């Protein structure tokens, strides 16, 4: 179970990581940013189906799930995976390594 505040914080971190991977295109740190984005968006995709919201009237946490949020997180994880593949492939070809 993940709280809404944690979900928003992870979403912000994932967005910053994906933005960092796209801004530092061709830089040495591009793969690190893309990997961070892939990990964060993947974690969000796995946990966003069980988001906890505090109900003040009962004093308990209520679990709320959203397949739309999971789909968006999976799409962002796919973009991060493509960016990671591109960063690793670019580094390998620029250093003369062939698959």
UniProtKB/TrEMBL annotation:
Domain of life: Archaea
Record protein name field: Uncharacterized protein
Taxonomic classification: Archaea, Methanobacteriati, Methanobacteriota, Stenosarchaea group, Halobacteria
